[in-house]
Amino acid sequence: MQSFSVILSILGLGLLHVAIGALDPDGVPYPDDPSVLNQQAGIAILKNYEHKKRTDYIFRQNLSPTAKLADKIVAQIKKTEDITIWNRYANSNNPKFPGQNFASARSTIGTTDLFKVVKRLPKGSLLHAHLTAMLPYGIIFQTILNTPGMVISAATDLASDANKNNTSINFAHSNTTVTAAAASIWTTSYIPNTPVLVTEAADAFPGGRVAFLAFLKDRVTLGIDDAEQSELGVDAIWKKFQGIFGTVGTAWSYEPLVRSFLQDLFGSLADDGVQWVEIRNGGNNGVVKTGDSVASPDPDYWYNLFQDEVTKFKATRKGRNFWGTRIIWTVSRGRERARIISDMKNALNFKAKYPDLISGYDLVSQEDLGRSLSDLTPELLWFQQQAGARNLTIPYFFHAGETLGDGNSTDDNIISAVKFGTRRIGHGFSLFKHPTLMDIYKEENVAVEVCLISNEALRLNDNVLQHPLPALIANGVYTALSNDDPAIEGQDDAGLSYDFYEAIQGFENIGLAGLGNLAQNSVLFSNFEDQNSYKWYTDIEEGANGSGIKADHVREWNKDWEKFCKWVVSEFGAKYNATA
Amino acid sequence: MQARIKNINAWPSTMPDEEWEEVATGIPTTEEPFIKQYVSGREALIAQEQKQRSDFAFRQSLSPIAQKACRIVSKIRDHEAATIWNSGLEDILAQKIGANVYPGMMFSLAKERMESTALWKIMKKMPKGALLHAHMDAMVDFDYLFGVLLETKGMHIYCNSALDTDIAREGAPVKFRFQVKDRVDGASIWSPEYIPDTPILLTQAADAFPKGGRQGFIAWLKDRCTITNTESIEHHHGVDAVWRKFSSCFGILNTIMFYEPIFRLFMRRMLKQLLDDGVKWVDLRLAFVFRYYKEGTDEPEDTFHEIFRVFGEEIENFKKSEEGKGFWGARMIWTGLRLLDTRKMVEDMDACISVKLAYPHLISGFDLVGQEDAGKPLKAVLPELFWFKKQCAQEGVNIPFFFHAGECLGDGSDTDQNLFDAVLLGTRRIGHGFSLYKHPLLIDMIKEKKILVESCPISNEVLRLCASIMSHPLPALLARGVSCSLCNDDPAILGQDTSGMTHDFWQCLQGWENLGLAGLGSLAENSVRWAAFEDESNSEWMQNIKDATLGSGVRAEKMKEWSIEWEQFCLWIVTEFDDDE
Ligand SMILES: [Zn+2]
Ligand SMILES: [Zn+2]
Where is the Adenosine deaminase domain (chain A) (predicted)? Predict the structure, then answer.
C-alpha cells in the first residue's frame, strides 16, 4: 500500500488549490481550464489504480491488439443497444429498460447483437450445474412423449387448477401393456397414482398435445410472475423450486431417455462454446434398463451408462473439441448424521471404482434451511480422514453463502468452506461483505462459481444490476460464471450465453475483456484430473505457462479467444464504426 | 442449487445396522482435539474479520450494562423473527402478497406489523444522535401537512389544465398558493369547464372533489405525493420509473409548504417529531426552486433571506420551548439541482453564498440533488463547482461539500463514478454511497480522509436499488471499516410517514445478525461525530472528528452527551426487558 499513500498525497485536497485561469462570460472556468483538467487527471489516476486490484487486470494488460479492438467494438455495441433496445434515457414508462429482470427481458435479449457476440464467445468450462435441471424441459417432455411405454401418474386427480399446480406428477416406463385408463387423469374420477400412457394423457388434455407440453413445462419452470413477485421472498420461491425436482427426477430415470438426454445436453453445451462441464449430481442414481419397468439393482449401471455416453459424444463431429465431464457428488444437507455418513461411504466407494468420473463432494438444497457446514464438522472431517486413509482424492466444492444474511449461519458457511479446503465455492453471494475472507480466498486460489440468473430467479437480487459480482472482481477474487439450473430458472438453454449476456449488459466495468477473463478463469479452475492440493494450487498459478492437462486447455482456450476476437472485429467492426 | 427428491427405492446404499454401529464409533465427537482445533481456527478467523469493522472500537468499549442490553435485544430479535415474522409458510400463503410474513420482508409490507413489536419500542426510545441526510420538503407526514393546508385561510388550488378525468388527476401538475382575496367563482377545477391556472378556494374545491369530497381529496393528494404501497413493491418496473413519480412529488409539495404560516407549523411538527424520536440535531437539505410567501401576502419574496430568518427563529423558539428541551439544533445544506444549465446553477450558487453571508450559522454546506442517473455527473459540472469554491474564498465564507454520490446500481457507469469526484472534490460526507462497496481503493481513501457515508436503507429500497433490507450493501461497508450513519432521506414521500428514523434503525437491526444493538449504537454515535454543528476549516473538521470525545469543542461535548444517553438507554432496556438472563 505504499503507492497508495503516494497517490493520496498527489491527489489530496491540494487539488482544490490549483489556480483557476480565464473565466467564461458567466465567470465560470472553461472545461479545459487547468483546475478542471487536473481534477479529471486525478480521477483517471485513481481509476487506473483501482483497476490494478481487479482479478482481470493482468488479462486486460495482455490483450492482443485485435482483442483490444474487439473489446472496444463490443463496448460500442452495448452503448448503442442500451439506447436502441433498452431505451436508456427514454423518459417514459417503457416496458424495456437497462436492468430489466431477466425473465421479462429474455425474449428481447435473443435479438441483440450483443447476444450474438456472447453466444460465439468460447466459454471454457461450466463449473456449477445440477444434472436434472440443465437440459430444457421442452426437449425432455417431447422425448418422453415420443418414447413408447412411458406413463404418467399423479398423487391426486389433475382436474382443478390447484391440483394441476401443486400435485406431484411422476413419469415411469411400463413394460406391460397399459390398458386405456378407466378415467382421464384430468377428471375428478381419476384414481390417484394410476399410471396412464403419456400419449393418452396428452391427447386428453384440454387443448391437446401442444397445450399438454406447455402445461408440463410451466409446472417445472420459474416464470415472469415469479420474478416480479420478489416481495414474497426467498423461502417462498425455494418451496416452489424444490418441488420441481421430484417430477423432473422421474423424467431422468429410464435408460433410453437418459442416453438421449445426455447426448442432447452435451450437444447443446458444445453449441454454446462450453468445452468442459462439472455436473453436480446426487449419488442415488437408479435407472430403469431399456424395456424394464423397475430400476436396475446394479448400482454401477448408471455410471457405466454415463461414461458410455460421454465417450460416444466425444466421437461425434460436434464432440470433437469437447474436453469432457466429471461429476461432483452431492447429498442433501437436510439429512441427519447417519444418512450423511452412509452417503459419504457410498461416495468413497464409487470414487474408488470411478476415479476419473467422480471429481468432488458437495452438499445441496436450500442453505438457509439445511444444516450448516459448521454443524456438519464431524462428518466432513471424517470424510476427509477416510478419503486420506483410502488414498482417494475427492476434494470439496461446497455451495456456500447462497444467502442474503450477514452473520447468520448460512453466511458463516463461506468461512467453514475455506477452512475445509474447498477448491471453489458455489455462489458465494454473501462473500462481498467479508473483506478478510476475500483476501483469504484470493491467497488460497479459491474461486467462486457465480450464478447471476439463478440468484435472481431465487430472489437474492431483483435484477443483474443488484448482483455483487462486481465487488468480488474489484477485490481480486477469482470468479467464473455458471448457470446452476438453467432449465428451471428461465435460461431455457443448457449453455452459458444468457448468464454471460447479463454480466456484460449489467456492468460497464466488465466489458468483453472482463467476460474473456471470466471464461479463462473457468478453465483455470476446472478439476480436469485428480490432483493433490499443492499441484492444484501451482497449476492455477502457472496457468498457460504450466505443463499438464490444465495448461494445455488454457492454451487452447487462449487460441480460441484470439480467433473469436478476430471474428468480432470482422463481423461488427464496420457496423459499429470502431477503429484501433 | 438443487434439492434431490427421488422415489426410487432400489437403492443399495442403506448401511446395515451392524455396519453403521461400527462406522459410528469412527466418527469424531465434537470433543476430539482436531475438531476443537478446527473450530478454534474458525473462530479466530471470524474474530480477525470483526477487528476490521467500523464498529469494532465501539463494541470493545461497551459497558457491562450495554453488553447486557445488546444480548437482551438480540434475544428479542431472534424471538420475534421466529414468532411475529413467521407465517408458517403454507404453500398457498407463500405465493400471496402480504400473507407470507418473514424476517426481512419488504418495508412497505412490514411497516404496520413492525410498529407493534418490542423491537420497535426499543428502537423508538434509542438516542439517535443526529439526522445527517434528509430533504426538508419530504419530512413532515402528509396527514398533518394536508390538514394544515386545508385549515390555512386563503389557500387556493390551481392547475394548467382541468382535473376532470382520472388521467388528468394522475399526472397534471397541480399547485397551491395563498391569495389575499378568496376566489370562489369560476368553474370547478374538477370539471372540463375549468379555466386553466385559475386559483380556486381550496376548501371549496376539496369539498367538491368528485370521488368522496374532502376525504377523497386528501387521499388523492397523498397518492400524488407518495410512493404508494403498490409502487413500492413493483420493483420490476425499475429505478427510472419510480424516480419519475418521486421527482413529481416535490413539485406539488413546494407549492404547499412555503407559505409562512404553513412553513412555521411545518418546522414545529418536524422538530418535535425528531426530538420525540431521539434525534437531537438535523442537517437538512433543501433545493431552492420554490417561492416563499410571507404571511398575508401573495407576492413572493425576491430572495431566500426571509425564509432563513424564519427557519432560524423557529429553531430557536423550539429549543426554548418546553417540548423542545434538550434539542441541539439544525442547519441547512443548500442543494442545487444537478440538471440546471451553467447559468442557472451559478445563479443558484450565488444565492447560496449570499444567504451564507447573512446567516452563517444556518448554512452548513452545499450539495447537488436530483436523480444521479438522469442528471449531469459531477465531472460535467466541475467548472461550476470550481467557480463556487473560488467565489466562497473571495467572500470569505466556508461552505463545504456534502455530495450525494453513488446512489445507483451498475458498476463503472458515470453515476457510479461520481464517487471518485466527490472524494477528490473534498466532500465531507457522502449521501448514499450505495455503489461504494464495489470500490476497494475508494473505500480505503474514504477511511483515510474520514469521510462518512450517510446510508438511507429504506430510501434505497423504495427507490428500487435493493429489493429489501437484506440485499442492502451497508454491511459490506461496515465490514470494511467505513464510518456510516443511518438516515431517512425523504420519509414523508417514501413511506416512513414520520420525521423520525426509527423505521430505518429497526430495519437494520432486524436485517443483519452482524449489526445488533451495539452496531446501531456505533452508527448513532457516528452521526453525532460527523454532524456539521458549526463552521470548521478542513483541518479543524478532521481534527475534531479524530479527537471525538477527547476534543474540546461542540462536537466533543455533544458526543459526551450522547454517550450518557446511550448508557441510560441501555439501563432502561435491562430494567424493562430483562426476564431470565
Ligand atoms: Zn447450485
Ligand atoms: Zn437524498
Answer: 255-533
DSSP H/E element including A57: helix A57-61
Q: Per residue in A171-213, pLDDT tens? A: 999 988 777 767 899 999 999 999 999 999 999 999 999 999 9
CB A219 within 8 A of CB A165: yes
Q: Is the CB of B37 inside 8 Å of chain A's CB atoms?
A: no
Is residue A510 less than 8 Å (CB to CB) from chain B? yes
Whole-model pTM: value is 0.90
CA distance B386 to A38: 11
Q: Using only C-alpha atoms, what is the Rg of chain B?
A: 27
Query: What values do phi and psi take at B464, rounded to 5?
Result: 70, 30
φ, ψ at A324 (rounded to 5°) = 135, -165
- Number of other CB atoms surrounding residue B575 within 10 Å: 10
pLDDT (tens digit, 9 = 90+) per residue, B63-95? 999 999 999 999 999 999 988 888 765 554 455
- Side chain identity at B553, as an amino acid letter? G
Please, what is the Cα angle at B532 between A38 and A9, to 5 degrees?
30
Point out which residues pair with B337 in neighbouring strands: B369
Residue B6's pLDDT band (cuts 50, 70, 90): very low
What confidence tens digit (pLDDT) does each residue in A61-87 have? 999 999 999 999 999 999 999 989 988
Rounded Cα distance between B561 and B100, Å, is: 43
Give the span between the Cα atoms of B131 and B139, in whole angstroms: 11
C-alpha separations of B532 from A238, B147, B554 in Å:
47, 33, 10
ipTM: 0.87
Q: Compute the Cα dihedral for A49, A51, A54, A57 and give only its sign.
A: negative
The residues in A 248-267 lying below 8 A from B, measured between CB atoms, are 249-250, 253
Alpha helices in A85-228 (DSSP H): 102-109, 113-120, 137-146, 161-166, 198-204, 208-219, 224-227
By the CB < 8 Å criterion, does A533 face chain B? no
Alpha carbons A523 and A441: distance in angstroms, whole number: 18
Nearest CA to B407 out of B451, B364, B368 is that of B368
CB contact under 8 A, B479 and A89: no
Of B3, B100, B383, the CB nearest to A36: B383
Q: What is residue B239's predicted lDDT score, i.e. its pLDDT?
A: 85
Angle at B146 between CA B141 and CA B147, to 5 degrees: 105
Residue B529 C-alpha to ligand 2 middle, in angstroms?
A: 20
Minimum mean pLDDT range among A17-26, A121-130, A405-414, B532-541: A17-26
Average pLDDT over residues A472-493: 96
Q: Is 60 exceeded by the pLDDT of residue A14?
A: no
3-class state of residue A42 by DSSP: helix
Q: What is the rounded CA–CA span in Å between residue A208 and residue A425?
A: 44
* Lookup: cell for A555: 492454451
Cell numbers at A391, concatenated: 488414498
Task: Please name the amino acid found at residue A128.
Answer: H
Residue B11 — very low, low, confident or very high, per pLDDT cuts 50/70/90?
A: very low
Residue with cell 465455492: A425
Residues of A in contact with B4 (CB under 8 A): 245, 249, 282, 284, 330, 332, 364-365
With CB atoms and an 8 Å threshold, state whether B35 touches A377: yes
A-B CB pairs within 8 A amount to: 340
Residue B258 to residue B506: CA distance in whole angstroms: 32
Taking the CA of B131 as reference, the closest ligand is 2
Q: Per residue in A333-374, pLDDT tens?
A: 888 888 899 999 999 999 999 999 999 999 998 877 778 998
Share of chain A above pLDDT 90, in %: 73
What's the rounded Cα separation, in Å, for the pair A132 and B59? 48
- Please tell me the distance between residue A425's alpha carbon and the centre of ligand 1 in angstroms: 10
Q: Does B389 touch chain A (CB under 8 A)?
A: yes
Task: Report the C-alpha gap between A241 and B61 in whole angstroms.
Answer: 46
